[in-house]
Amino acid sequence: MTERALRLGTRRSKLAMAQSGQVAEKVRQLTGRPVELVEITTYGDTSREHLAQIGGTGVFVAALREALVKGEVDLAVHSLKDLPTAQPAELVLAAVPEREDPRDVLIARDGLTFAELPDGARVGTGSPRRMAQLNAYARSHGMTIETVPIRGNIDTRVGYVHNGELDAVVLAAAGLSRIGRTDEVTDFLSVDTVLPAPGQGALAIECAAHNASLAAALAELDDPYTRAAVTAERSLLAALEAGCSAPVGALADLLADGQIVKEMRLRGVVGTTDGSTLVQLSTTGPVPETETQAMALGRELAVEMLAKGAAGLMGERAL
Ligand SMILES: NCc1[nH]cc(CCC(=O)O)c1CC(=O)O
């Protein structure tokens, strides 16, 4: 007897289709069931407004979650960094697979790296987090750059460099890697220069909370270290009371002594988009073994960042 196909809800962008296709294949192998992709259009796909203006939070995710709640699809794949920090009770984050490269990258004309950009270079990014950190780097290295707010899918954004409108654009390495375009990268930005968005490079696989057998099957795709890391990063974001369009970067990683994993480190940054002020801090603790412990690591760092004035920097709703 063959069971009915699992319906996997996905956005229609090239990136969403690529990552959903990759997860669909793994779910097929895992469950032995056919998996069909169901395309869903989200507000973030149709709105032409700047993300920082529409609030960012959940614009790519709400319609997918609605389809899950209504039972129109069985599972959904999101870029974890697009997922609001509040988890709806009807849904479970069934798996967070192993994270890809979390870094941001530059695609610049003539193969230029960030440090090689000429004075006055026009750098496209709609992300306040990227603007804040790139401008801070430029200031401290005697460079002048102009950050230009852009949005759109990967083709659109890279297109601004090819058509000469911009000298460079900044994107997530993971997105380019999932659509097989890392060869166009001209500079992988060190996380010491630009901390990624909380959850960047990771995927989230959600299903209905009542579908316990599917949730249990999907749990096989979970990577506990990635889950602990992104849980700490998102807890920091939530404790700062910031959304995914706020100028907040965070990255948790493991500190090892040879082969032995010792601790988890969590780094966080908040800044003004002009880069004149950054609050950048780091904390370490035992590798979290529970969600509660991972959340505590994030909250701990948030308290320290707030004590250093982080809230005042986020109040700014500028592009
Ligand atoms: N904000 C859109 C978005 N959501 C996830 C990714 C990339 C993939 C990822 O970080 O997992 C991107 C594009 C980008 O920032 O360049």
Description of the molecule:
By secondary structure, the chain is of the alpha/beta class. It has helices at residues 14-31, 43-46, 51-54, 62-69, 128-140, 154-162, 173-178, 212-218, 224-239, 291-307, 310-314, and strands at residues 6-10, 35-39, 75-79, 91-95, 104-108, 121-124, 145-148, 168-172, 187-188, 203-208, 248-257, 260-271, 278-286. It has a five-stranded mixed beta sheet with strand order 2-1-3-10-4, with helices on both faces. The radius of gyration is 19 Å and the shape is globular. 49% of the residues are buried. The model has no long low-confidence stretch (mean pLDDT 92). The structure holds the ligand NCc1[nH]cc(CCC(=O)O)c1CC(=O)O. Ligand PBG binds at residues 79, 81-82, 171-172, 174-175, 200-201.
Short descriptors:
319 residues, alpha/beta, D-Maltodextrin-Binding Protein, domain 2, Double Stranded RNA Binding Domain, five-stranded mixed β-sheet, 34% helix, binds the ligand NCc1[nH]cc(CCC(=O)O)c1CC(=O)O, transferase, porphyrin biosynthesis, Porphobilin_deaminase_N, Porphobilinogen deaminase, hydroxymethylbilane synthase activity
